[in-house]
Amino acid sequence: MLGKRWLALRESDQSSHTVYEFGCLPDRVWRRRHSRAMQLLATLQHPHVLSIETCSFEVGGEAWASAPYTGNHDCIVTLMDVVRAKGDTLPPAEAERAVLQVLEGMAFAHSVGVCNGPIAIEQLLVDRHGSLLIELYGVARALAGLEGMNGELVRDEVRSVVEIAYRLLTGIEADEPRIPVGRLVKRMPRGFEQWIETGLDPTGGYQTAQDAIDALAESRAEPETSRVRNVLGRFASWSR
Asked: Please, which residues bridge with residue 21 across strands?
């Protein structure tokens, strides 16, 4: 986490918000970077990216920002909270849905020239509708004065999401030597398994978030295609 989270209530409309306290920034350079980072994040209006609503500085130089509150009546809910509650892993269908939402938010950010670098699973929040949002996307790079993106950075970011998929399914990190996910997860869909293996291949992987999204869609279609081919094969044998 780049800052402390606080829950705030706006009295005028009784709405809940998450307020981030970033601490005291040492000089004008850091304050300019902070303002730019918050302005950048405010432009990322997407269902799976948590956007910033407002930002300000206190008299002593402490930096603050607010965002919509995504939690329930009790607290903010992270993806890891959900995973732990389910026994430290997710079923393949839920893991696939989670990584697809992250990739969709990432693809949008990349389309407007913003990049985060590798995504940490701790950055992923779950809202009251069960939807994922990436928290403080791109802020760390912006605060470090880094802008723009390149192919290597994008590939590393996409790979980090595939690594998250592996962690959600297996309960362990995708460190080498890595056990193939199909050996650890019962009834693992073949297409999703291949998607993960391709994404973690050190000599391959996905070049962009959209490439990973497209490949995931194709992986879901494969079992149905195979089933149709089998049926057509039986039709052909019956006709002979």
From this structure: 4, 64
